[in-house]
Amino acid sequence: MDQIKWGIIGCGNVTEVKSGPAFNKVPNSQLVAVMRRDATLAEDYAKRHGVPKWYSDVDDLINDPEVNAVYIATPPNVHEAYAEKAMRAGKPVYVEKPMAMDAAECDRMNAVSEETGVPLFVAYYRRSLPYFTKLKELIYSNVIGDIRYVNITLQWQPYDEEVGELRKPRWRVQPEISGGGHFHDLASHQFNYLEYVLGPIKQARGIARNQAGLYEADDITVANFEFESGVLGNGVWCYTINKEQREDHAQIIGSRGRISFSFFEKCDIIVETESGTEVYNIPYPEHVQQPLIDLIVKELRGEGKSPSSGLTGARANLIMDWITKGK
Known about the structure:
Helix 8 (182-198) crosses helix 10. By secondary structure, the chain is α/β, with parallel strands linked by helices. Strand 9 and strand 10 form a beta hairpin. It has ten helices and 14 strands.
């Protein structure tokens, strides 16, 4: 492929800044069509972002002869079906995370990719984001020695629409659409990145419960996990605390020090060793998915390799299944 001409299925909030504009800013890449079930919203998005064509039917976008690659930015419940349609049409797929509802769906998506020979990528963009590439560099430089364990704390207050007598929780906490709840949505990023820098997780166990009753999905999860390297990890994810307790904190502990960082809050990376403390302030780019999209385009043009694939993306679903479903 020479010029990668993208079509977006599901042009919702995630595409407004994080991803959508990046397709036109990456060399040899162009966003040529968008699709949303509401034609008025699809047209509005296209006009605001300068996209030539818009559709309200997924098949029309996939079968558009000008579109030669597809970005699926819908909720997870339709990722498998839309990815299969696109791959069987011969069009590489870039799908939002989590990759699908569960590990079984991910496996079927990867099987279609292997059968058709059509590439499949997942939007785990932290694998190429400068903040996290610096974190990987620090870990690999052995600045904190041999890695011993990982600790994750993620506790957030409920979203406004999840509380009150007239609450109307969004799709992310509707398991029939998202595959789980906020843990499924956010921890997928964390486990995907940790495997990228520390290698495969060989086992994980946990407890997932709904304590507050604000919605159907689990709202608190605790877990222990073990990497094949022998590194251990633990985490707590709670989404029903008050805003004063909001915390997004992760630590990687080594034999000679520790690295503290945030997965979502854009905090500094702090390295503490016997030599002292070093602080790294690395801002996020305007469009956080742009570095990964650039690498995907390069791979499709035969010029490089994306660090995030269907095979690596499926691992996060598997780990979350182990933790929340006891599999």
